[in-house]
Amino acid sequence: MSPGRPSLFCDTGLAARIERAEAGLVAEASAAAHRRGSAGFVTGLAGGVASFAEAGSPFNKVAGLGFGGVPDADALAEVERGFGAFGAPVTVELASLADPAIGALLAGRGYLLAGFENVLGRALDGEPERVAPSGVEIRLIGADELGSWLDAVLAGFAEPDHQGGPGHEEFSREVVEWAERDLAATSGVRLYLARLDGAIVGGAALRVTGRIAQFSGAATVPAHRRRGVQSALLATRLADAAAAGCDIAVVTTAPGSKSQQNAQRRGFDLLYTRVVLLRPPEPEPGHAPASFGPH
């Protein structure tokens, strides 16, 4: 907690807002993958979304469950068949504040614990200060700088800054690149480049939706870490989010990670945890449900 700043309390109402925003991001990113020709599906499920963007994508998941009722067993089975048609497991990210009956339902259907992720938030009141160490400059990318942004972010993701427990997912560089392009195609997204003494050393993304600022895509080139780049990216996005009329900024991190530590230093509070549940695929050869067919 920052000096003089009260801790942010998260009730089920706030958690529902955040989970709706997350579900919207997943749905839009998956739709972007389909527009460029990838086979998959996006469908609503009990207030959340089930998404298969393309093989290996981080947007292959069920998100936002728990605040719109318990999924109907038939609808859930259809989603499971949809993932199975692509030979993929079903991954569900379930908030700890979600309806407990959903966890029991998934456990009964063979879902297994795969990991955890933390959701942190900070109330946006006043005008957050734009702070950056000497030599560090943060600004929005130009029209021709998407490639530079991708290079910086991918270089950072290629060598994770290990701290805390191991992550539950690993992705190839190609998959991450396409996922970041799909993220950039979602509504309300702003992309930022970080420079240190003129050289591009990192990048990050901000998505504004329903007065929620979603922070994502943050990475620093390994050779330039521990120079305050991530803190500067956080500070700039906080100021821009407040200026855009957002009342809360949200970031998702691996538990105990450097990213979580950086966020808490900038006044973010741990709001809740998402448990990651996985059900291995049960492919049915030659079967692709009509509502989940490739498109």
Fold topology:
Blueprint: H1 12-35, E1 41-45, E2 48-52, E3 61-63, H2 73-85, E4 90-95, H3 100-108, E5 112-123, E6 136-140, H4 146-158, H5 173-184, E7 189-196, E8 199-209, E9 212-220, H6 229-243, E10 248-253, H7 258-265, E11 269-279
Parallel strand pairs: 3-4, 9-10
Antiparallel strand pairs: 1-2, 2-3, 4-11, 5-10, 5-11, 6-7, 7-8, 8-9
The multimeric state of the shown protein is single chain
- Could you list the spans in which at least 5 consecutive residues all have pLDDT below 50? 287-291
Task: Tell me the CATH topology of the largest domain.
Answer: Aminopeptidase
Query: What is the overall silhouette?
Result: globular
Question: End-to-end distance, in Å?
Answer: 46 Å
Overall helicity: 25-40%
Provide key terms for this protein:
alpha+beta, globular, Aminopeptidase, 32% helix, eleven-stranded mixed sheet, 11 strands
Quick structural overview:
The chain has seven helices and eleven strands. The chain is an alpha+beta fold.
Task: Please give a structural write-up.
The protein has 295 residues and is α+β, with helices and mostly antiparallel strands. Helices cover 32% and strands 27% of the residues. It folds into two domains: 12-118 and 275-292, no CATH class; 123-271, Gcn5-related N-acetyltransferase (GNAT) (Aminopeptidase, 3-Layer(aba) Sandwich), CATH 3.40.630.30. The radius of gyration is 19 Å and the shape is globular. The model is unreliable at 287-291 (pLDDT under 50).
